[in-house]
Write a structure and sequence with these properties.
Elements: E1 5-16, E2 19-31, E3 36-40, H1 47-54, E4 62-71, E5 74-78, E6 81-82, E7 92-95, H2 99-102, H3 109-120, H4 126-139, H5 145-149, H6 158-170, E8 176-180, H7 188-205, E9 208-213, H8 216-222, E10 225-230, E11 233-239, H9 240-245, H10 250-257
Parallel strand pairs: 3-9, 3-10, 7-8, 8-9
Antiparallel strand pairs: 1-2, 1-4, 4-5, 5-6, 10-11
Amino acid sequence: MNDLLALDGLSITAKLDSGDLRLVNEVDLTIDKGQIVGVVGESGSGKTTLARAVVGLLDRNVRVETGAIRLGGTEIVTPTRDSTADVRGSSVGMVFQDASRSLNPLMKVRGHLAEVLRRHVPGITKAEVEHRSIEVLEQMRISDAARVLDSYPHQLSGGLRQRVAIGLAVVTRPSLVIADECTTALDVTTQTKVVELFRQLVDELGIGLLFVTHDLMLASDLCDRIVVMSQGRVVEQGPVLEVLENPHEDYTRRLLAAIPSWN
């Protein structure tokens, strides 16, 4: 059986005035349906670059140098090919760090959902858009979906805005969702609720989730497997309990030692 997502020997390089800089170095990673894989590391570890490569959102001076990315067994990225536009928003949903910046302040939630559905679901009718929009907000555990649909982003709390952003990522019923530091701007209580929501969505919808975070404890609460990155390389990966209770690398031990409640 093919993995839902597979990164094989992926290396990514940035072209700078001072020369080439390797951002991601020969990374291997797989995710299957119904599985949550956390990519953990400090700022500059390469985890966000890795995630953005899967959806083709690398900066113009950044390119895949070696390796490949496959989705459902089909190559979507190689050094000479990038077909991420064919899957972005349809087969792969993306949740960004700051919901406030990813939502148009001049557009109601209804408009955001309708725009995504019309762009990525050919032939969808107006009635289907309305039904799917309400359905996805209810999946986000939003009790007053009708009010939220007719609200502008600034009229919603930070937690609700993030739920809407997650709804935008899953409304097209993708097979894979990538969440890039999407809980960073939230308070601890709201973070917990968002993590619970992700777990429920993966269990109910059978999607795969790539969860990028600097927060090792948050990843341990949510993920099935953890991939630890440092300076563009994967230094350790495995099932959550195995990595956290028996880390093999000094870098992982240092991350754990920096968590007060872990000591």
